[in-house]
Structures are given as C-alpha cells and as structure tokens.
Specification:
Distance between the termini: 60 Å
Strand order of the largest sheet: 2-1-3
CATH superfamily: Rhodopsin 7-helix transmembrane proteins
Number of domains: 1
CATH architecture: Up-down Bundle
Shape: globular
Length: 322
C-alpha cells in the first residue's frame, strides 16, 4: 500500500544522500540503434519515411477534426487528441534516432535528457489513459446508441481528456522527481537512441534496487493494469455483440478488432520494457523502435483513415484546395 511505497522511497532517499558527494556527469552519450555502416543508410531512409508518414498522417487528422464540423463529436475529439499525442510521441524520439545514424558520438546534456524523459512519459501516460477512455466511448456508442449523445457529450469528453492529461503529468513528474535526485558517474554511455528511465538508472552511482522498484510500480504496474482493464473491456464488448444484428455486429467487430490491435501494439512493448527489472536484453532496442516510431504511424490508418466520415472530410478538404 501507500505506507510500503513511502518506506521504499525513504530508503532510496537515504541511499542517494549517502552517495551525494560522488562526482556527477553533465552529459550522456547515446550509442544509437546500430553502428553498422552497411545498415545505417538503409535504416535512415526507412525511418525517415516512417517518421514523415507519422507527421503527415497524424497532423492531417488533427486538422480534419479541428476544421470539419461533421467531426466535432466526442469520438473524433478523442481520435484527434490521440493523433496529436502520436505526433508528439514520435517527435520526441525519432529525431534522435535519425541523427544517430550519422553521428559517431551523439551527446545529450543532462538537462535535455531529463526533459526528454519527462515529455516521453508525459505523452505516454496520457495515451494510456486516453485509450481507456476510448474503450468506454465505444462501449456507450455500441450498446447505448440512443443515449450516447447524453452520456458522452462535449463537456464529459473534454473533462475526460483533461483528466487523462493530468494523469499523464502526475505519472511523469514522479519519474523525473526520482531521476533528478540520483548522482551519476562515468561511464556515461546510454545504450539506446533516446533517454529513458531503464538506461539512465543503470548509470547511477547508488544501489538502484529501491529506485527500480519504484519505477516498476509506477510505469510497469500502470501499464499492466491499463492493459488488463482494456482487455476486459473489449472482451465484454465482444461477448455482448452476439445480441446485435448481423450488420451491426460486423461493424462493431471491425471497430473492436482495430482498437485491440493498437492496444496490443502499444501496451505489449511497454509491459516488456517497464514491468520487469531494468536489465539489458538483445531485443530491447527493437522493441523500443516498435512502440516509439512504428506504432504512431499505424494509429491513423487503424483508427481513423478507414472511417467513412474521415474519408469524406479528406475529399472535401482536397476539393476545397484544388
């Protein structure tokens, strides 16, 4: 409970105070994704194309939701927020990934590294809460269509989005408040293409057992619980779909299947990274690429661009500009 959590935190603070007089570092070196000269150019082209598609796809959805009156509904407000978050999430890490293919030593200052951790977990935390809200929105839309407008009105949708942003901020500020109290010593090399908690903690001069326990209980437990809640929610949705008409059932099954695909792609890698002790494994970088660079480009296609209303809005926008 809270008492045991505070006890662990006090032990961690005592350990960090004892080690506080050790020499610290002011910058870190990111080792990047690979140092193979044969792969670097190919990977740069691939990930540049993926990042470009992420930016264009997600910003297109943000513009459509903002400008098209037909899309001014709670569902599209949630999807617009998700697209904006995916754009931000990818932009936090992708530039580092691309730059790392050409720099022998990619140096990042301590302050920038901490800022990257904050925004990475801030945006990631919001996405987890937002996906949970979207599951609730789909439940209401499928099983209470006549009451949907009353239950999920603009005020309720805005309040839920605001709550998800607040939750993401609290989650992230806890991570950063622990990181900034740690003393770091040489070597100061991070075996990744961006700053994240597992790699940074391993460079601390103190015994990090208590810190890792705090981080796993924060990031890992939150991600795991969020995934289980979503899994149960969609399982209930699928079980109740047997009562719908064949046409309604096919449409709802398509929606649930696409949402479950995104949920698995986002939560699976996060659980792998954060819900275990912070040890290095050969698959770590590949998993990091999956949920930081690849997943954000899939979300617009899976969630939104297949939607008929969005396709109609795209055609209207194209006609307007042509």
């Amino acid at each position: 409970g809270l008492t045991s959590w505070l006890r662990v935190f006090s032990l961690y603070q005592a350990a960090s105070m004892e080690e506080g007089n050790r020499s610290t570092v002011s910058e870190f070196v990111l080792l990047g994704l690979t140092k193979s000269s044969e792969l670097q150019l190919l990977l740069f082209v691939i990930f540049l194309a993926v990042y470009g598609a992420t930016v264009l796809g997600n910003l297109l959805i943000v513009v459509l939701v903002a400008c098209e009156p037909q899309l001014h509904t709670p569902m599209y407000m949630l999807l617009g927020n998700l697209s904006f978050l995916d754009f931000c999430y990818s932009s936090i890490t992708a530039p580092n990934l691309l730059a790392g293919f050409f720099l022998q030593a990619q140096i990042i200052s301590y302050g920038v590294c901490v800022a990257q951790i904050f925004f990475f977990h801030f945006i990631g935390g919001i996405k987890i809460f937002l996906l949970t809200i979207m599951a609730y929105d789909r439940y209401v839309a499928i099983f209470h269509p006549l009451r949907y407008g009353a239950i999920m009105n603009q005020a309720v949708g805005g309040g839920l989005v605001g709550a998800s942003w607040a939750g993401g901020f609290i989650h992230s500020i806890i991570q950063v408040s622990i990181i900034i109290q740690l003393p770091f010593c040489s070597p100061h090399e991070l075996d990744n293409f961006y700053c994240d908690v597992p790699q940074v903690i391993k460079l601390a001069c103190v015994d990090t057992f208590a810190v890792e326990l705090l981080m796993v209980s924060n990031s890992g437990l939150m991600t795991l619980l969020g995934f289980l809640v979503l899994l149960v929610s969609y399982s209930v949705l699928l079980a109740k779909l047997s009562t719908c008409s064949s046409e309604g059932r096919a449409k709802a099954l398509s929606t649930c299947a696409s949402h479950l695909t995104v949920v698995t792609l986002i939560f699976g890698p996060c659980i792998y990274i954060y819900a275990r002790p912070f040890r290095s494994f050969p698959m770590d970088k590949a998993v990091s690429v999956l949920y930081t660079v690849v997943t954000p480009v899939l979300n617009p296609v899976i969630y939104t661009l297949r939607n008929k209303d969005v396709q109609l809005a795209v055609r209207k926008l194209r006609k307007l500009h042509l």
